[in-house]
């Protein structure tokens, strides 16, 4: 089971930190990813991280503002989101090995 947390409402320019906790199983060797889906839009890739954490990939839209990390000892992945923009408003999902969390809402206001 994947459980996201840390979403909420924040003003533009602010920060949020999302967490994705794995329970029941361990996928510590698998890459983990964040996706997001804004209202009326398709789900899009945000960021990914390998098992070692040594390789990360970001969507161009978040590069330089978001930071993905993981703690394999805690089976948890994070997404630090800084300099948030209105267009970052979406439901954020984590995924690993074909499993998806239920999502956490992020709302950025002006």
Describe the protein's architecture and organization.
- It is globular and about 40 Å long.
- The N and C termini lie far apart (34 Å).
- The strands form 2 sheets. Strands 2, 4, 5, 6, 9, 10 and 11 form a 7-stranded mixed beta sheet that branches. A 4-stranded antiparallel beta sheet has the order 1-3-8-7, with no helix packed on it.
- The chain has 110 residues and is mostly beta strands.
- β9 and β10 (99-100) form a beta hairpin.
- It is 0% helix and 52% strand.
- The protein has strands at 2-5, 8-11, 16-22, 32-37, 44-49, 56-58, 66-71, 76-81, 90-96, 99-100, 104-109.
- The mean pLDDT is 93.
- It is built from no helices and 11 strands.
- Radius of gyration, taken over Cα atoms and rounded to an integer in Å: 13 Å
User: What is the overall shape?
Assistant: globular
Q: Low-confidence parts, pLDDT < 50 over ≥5 residues?
A: none
- Estimated share of beta-strand residues: over 45%
Number of helices: 0
Distance from N terminus to C terminus (CA atoms, Å) equals 34 Å
- Percentage of helical residues? under 10%
Q: What is the average per-residue confidence, as pLDDT, rounded to a whole number?
A: 93
- Which structural class matches the secondary elements? mainly beta
Q: Would you list the SSEs in sequence order as H and E?
A: EEEEEEEEEEE
Topology, number of strands: 11
For the sheet with most strands, the description reads:
7 strands, mixed
């Amino acid at each position: 089971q994947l459980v996201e947390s840390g979403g909420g409402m924040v003003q533009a320019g602010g920060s949020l930190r999302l967490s994705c906790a794995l329970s029941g199983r361990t996928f510590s060797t698998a890459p983990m990813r964040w996706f997001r889906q804004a209202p009326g839009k398709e789900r899009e890739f945000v960021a990914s991280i390998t098992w070692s954490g040594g390789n990360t990939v970001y969507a161009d839209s978040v590069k330089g503002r978001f930071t993905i990390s993981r703690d394999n000892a805690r089976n948890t992945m994070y997404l630090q989101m800084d300099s948030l923009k209105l267009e970052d408003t979406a439901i954020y999902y984590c995924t690993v090995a074909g499993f998806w969390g239920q999502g956490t809402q992020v709302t950025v206001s002006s």
